[in-house]
């Protein structure tokens, strides 16, 4: 069993494993790994790996493991990262503009906000945040940073709030939510490698092994859904071609035609689960 992301929540998975099994926990966040080690200290069949789940195929090879029984990918930012204001993920508290899941990497939110060109900023905010006021936000960020470097989440929120009409804010929730999501995705490169990560994960599964992926926003979910469809061997060639040239191969089948959503009870106990979607794929 391999769990990538959310390593601190792996207790219940490990509890179900026999001592003959092995749980491999992969996380970019060293602090999450330390939390997992404390929670799972009773188990001696857990391997902790500080790395990116995008490298899952290479990581499994380095561990001299050929195939695995199952994989759980828990995508996105964790509750701990959101709640810890020093990490800079949240727009609800003031903190440094960081947003790195892996604090050893160089690229930060502060660098993006203060160094990307206006056109680049607008593209990131629109593409990854689906923010209709992306150009206005990018323009105002660039105007402000000429006078003073933007170093805190509070200052970025202030600029965003001034860039979006108040009437729109009342209908769409917190005005900074989409922009913060976009910058976080850019900092951590969360979307671009996702397709290959899904395919690589399926390839290292044993026959009948399952890949379970939890997503928390539409961009992730669309990427996972598309990768699953391609992994079923469905042709992706443009209509009108006389014969198939895409070379799609059938790797397995989709178990969840529609995503599994949290129950009412779960959403009541954990409001952050409301946007979660679980999709499952089985290797053949």
Description:
The chain is an alpha/beta fold. It folds into 2 domains: 2-79 and 190-283, Vaccinia Virus protein VP39 (Rossmann fold), CATH 3.40.50.150; 90-188, Putative methyltransferase TM0872, insert domain (DNA polymerase, domain 1). Helix content is 43%, strand content 14%. The protein contains 13 helices and 7 strands. It has helices at residues 11-16, 30-39, 56-62, 79-83, 109-115, 118-129, 134-147, 153-163, 166-172, 177-188, 194-203, 218-231, 264-269; strands at 2-4, 23-27, 46-50, 68-74, 205-215, 252-254, 277-283. It has a 7-stranded mixed sheet with strand order 3-2-1-4-5-7-6, sandwiched between helices. Helix 2 links the parallel strand 2 and strand 3. The chain is globular, with a radius of gyration of 20 Å.
Which structural class should the secondary elements be placed in?
alpha/beta
How confident is the prediction overall: mean pLDDT? 90
The number of domains = 2
Q: Assign the CATH topology of the largest domain.
A: Rossmann fold
CATH-wise, what's the superfamily of the largest domain? Vaccinia Virus protein VP39
Spans where pLDDT lies below 50 across 5 or more residues: none
The ordered string of helix (H) and strand (E) elements is EHEHEHEHHHHHHHHEHEHE
Q: Which CATH first-tier class of the largest domain would you pick?
A: Alpha Beta
The largest pleated sheet is described as: 7 strands, mixed
Give the name of the CATH architecture of the largest domain: 3-Layer(aba) Sandwich
- End-to-end C-alpha gap: 17 Å
Number of β-strand runs: 7
């Amino acid at each position: 069993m391999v769990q990538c992301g959310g390593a601190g929540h792996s207790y219940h998975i490990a509890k179900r494993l026999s001592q003959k099994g092995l749980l491999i926990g992969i996380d970019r966040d060293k602090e999450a790994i330390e939390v997992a080690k404390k929670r799972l200290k009773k188990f001696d069949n857990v391997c902790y790996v500080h790395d990116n789940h995008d490298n899952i195929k290479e990581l499994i090879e380095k561990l001299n493991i050929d195939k695995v029984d199952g994989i759980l990918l828990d995508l996105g930012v964790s509750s701990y990262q959101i709640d810890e204001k020093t990490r800079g993920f949240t727009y609800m508290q003031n903190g440094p503009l960081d947003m790195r899941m892996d604090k050893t990497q160089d690229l930060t939110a502060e660098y993006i906000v203060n160094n990307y060109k206006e056109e680049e900023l607008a593209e990131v905010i629109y593409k990854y945040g689906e923010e209709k006021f992306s150009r206005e936000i990018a323009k105002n960020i660039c105007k402000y940073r000429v006078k003073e470097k933007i170093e805190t989440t509070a200052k970025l929120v202030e600029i965003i709030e001034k860039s979006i009409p108040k009437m729109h804010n009342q209908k769409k929730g917190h005005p900074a939510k989409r922009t913060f999501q976009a910058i976080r995705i850019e900092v951590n490169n969360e979307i671009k490698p996702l397709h290959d990560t899904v395919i690589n994960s399926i390839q290292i599964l044993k026959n009948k092994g399952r890949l379970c992926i939890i997503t928390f926003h539409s961009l992730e979910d669309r990427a996972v859904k598309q990768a699953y469809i391609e992994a079923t061997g469905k042709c992706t060639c443009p209509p009108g071609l006389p014969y198939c040239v895409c070379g799609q191969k059938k790797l397995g089948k989709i178990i969840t035609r529609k995503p599994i959503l949290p129950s009412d009870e779960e959403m009541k106990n954990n409001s952050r689960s409301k946007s979660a979607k679980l999709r499952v794929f089985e290797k053949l």
